[in-house]
Amino acid sequence: MTTYGITSITGRFGQFALNELLKNIPADHIVGFARDIQKGQKIVPDGVTVRLGDFTQPEALAQSFQGIDRLLFISSIPGQQVSRGQQHQNVVQAARQAQVEHIVYTSFPHADTATTPLAADHFATEQAITAAGISHSFLRNNWYLENELAFIKAGGAQEPLLDATDHAHVGWALEQEYAIGAAKVLQMEQPKTIYEFSGPANTFADLAQAMPYQPQVQPVTLTQMRQILTDKGLSSAAIEAKMMVQTLIHDRQLAQTANDLTEVLGHPLTPLTEAVQQILKK
């Protein structure tokens, strides 16, 4: 029987994917990978094996991946001591050495044509997987609605919400929906090579209307937003994080949407209003 692997098993995406996989696959045919094995063992159900999954240790990864037929490779977070690009190269090298048959990789929307620097590591990873000769499915995930938690919570303050995106669209969907989609693709006998996963196209004004208090949205330019955030005394790191997302959306990097996710799930996505309510309850 096929053995399935999921990297970053202690993260939210990994947990969502694991829970979905367990609906159809026996626990003893699933392996989770974590940097902290003990932490992983505490949170996975009985029967699921946990192995070392440190992306900075390619030789150990190659050993951990032994016996894995189909691997869900969840992309790592940028800005760590070892670059994300190098970490991903290590994973691909280890998967090739372990003769993993198929990789499902969580990538970036239209990674092959996107102009944002955020897409560079993802496209390089896609190229590395292809060059390694490993059968693959690239899940080009749009944007998690949870990424806008600060914006959504600010809507309850009854103050206008700043929006420097120039009415650009985003394909928001819940992280759980992306993860369930990933688990379903992992189980397919003949999956597609590329999936453009997203929710329907919505703007920040649409998002505000989906909030309980329906706050006003104040359109500003990117320059104005940076100045406003500076005047509020936010740290440089906080300002850059907010500006990165606003610029990403302003530049239409998340504007193209598709039906791939709903087709894989087999049902419509959670409506935006309901999705916002779910996030606020967490």
TrEMBL record:
Identify the PANTHER family for this entry. NMRA-LIKE DOMAIN-CONTAINING PROTEIN, QUINONE OXIDOREDUCTASE 2
Return the protein name: NAD(P)-binding domain-containing protein
One short Pfam family name for this protein? NAD_binding_10
Bilayer-crossing residues are none
The record's section on InterPro entries has: NAD(P)-bd_dom (IPR016040), NAD(P)-bd_dom_sf (IPR036291), NmrA-type_oxidoreductase (IPR052718)
Source superkingdom: Bacteria
Q: Where is the NAD(P)-binding domain?
A: 10-148
Organism, by scientific name, is Weissella kandleri
